[in-house]
Amino acid sequence: MLSLLPEISMRFRRKVTVLLILIQVGLIGILASLVYPRLYWEQLESLRRRVTSIAATGALSIDGNLHRSIPADPSSASLPAYQQLQTQLKRILAANPGIRYTWTMVRSPVPGQTFLIGDVGGGGSKGPGRPYDASGIPDLWMGFEVPTADRQEVKDPWGVSISGYAPIHDSEGQVVAILGVDVYDQQLYLLRQKFLIFLVVSLTIAVGAGFGIGSWVALGIANPLDRLVHGMRRIEQGHLNHEIRLLTGDEFEEAAAAFNRMTQALQASRAQLRAAFLKTIQSLISALEAKDPYTRGHSVSVVSYATEMAKVLAKSSSEIETIERLSVLHDIGKIGIHDATLQKPSALTPEERQSMQQHPVIGAKILGPLDLSPEELDLIVSHHEWEDGTGYPQGLTRPQISDLVAIVSVADAYDAMTSHRPYRHTMTPAEALAELRRTAGTQFRPEAVEAMAIVLEKKGIL
Q: What residues does 162 pair with on adjacent strands?
């Protein structure tokens, strides 16, 4: 019986060793199945948002009237208008490192086909009028309506890439073409390679560490395993700042370190996305204020008033940050309104007023690719809604209007009433406040109006 103990012990040790190896391999498989898809899609979404914002900003710099004058024909390459277009595309390419190719396309009478007009990068110009089969790229067609990007990699004769698209408008607001920007998928390729290396190294460590480990080690597996699984679940829930700290001196510690490096890379990617988002905001605001001299500085004033009102109403730091970041964009949809309507020196006709009332909806479409939360997008869509439900564009009532929207509505109205307009009397601060109080409860939220009164008194305006 005693002679059997070493054999039993050896068999048990072999079983535990195999079990340990299987556990480690399974753990790495779980890590791969949970983390890699998230990392991959986060990286892809980061690329999509980046090229979308570049395309949206770049399309604003393209002269739509100039583009419309270029026929979809190879002979157009000699036209001055075509050379001007190429120059504009080169500027976009030079201003955005990492973009390999930028181009414009127009629709073709043939279903599913487009014509290439301008193009810069990608190994030389292809020339205007070259047909392109876009029947299998639905996001490209969506680009004739709103800024967007490919939802997955696209393979064509020029390689595998992620492309962003944005409509190019003429002076009448008509879509005449789309601007496209291409990023070849080197970042996604590198992510796959790094993950493959991580997977191979981790599996090698798991198998190597399993041999020679006896049954007494099995008891020490439970704690690090629990912590790794907990860490994976925290990352899966979106807590990207969570780190796994293991000081076991074995393969678990190495796996945790690799895991932490991957989460740190993901956080860095999000930081880059935020920076691109802020640059997009600056470009859009500059374009908006350049179109309407009467509202120049209006957005900045609304941010100032709304931020101070939010502080008076004791809103949380995250809510105040949301107002500071997004209330500047409340009128961004006016980019889609004709200049003749925006700058009309007299009262608007019913038709013009109806057109103007679409700017919150247009603003929401412009900002759609940025994936704002419903609460954030509400500041753009609902700042003209009234407490009694007679506002626009949705006719919301008080329970459906958030406090942040109510704050921005009052700040917007006050600055508009005290700003110069050629078709009406400019109110004094006292007159504007009296008008806000008169309409409190029907148009404006009373608490927000009184918060504005306190802000004006603190600023010494009243």
A: 183
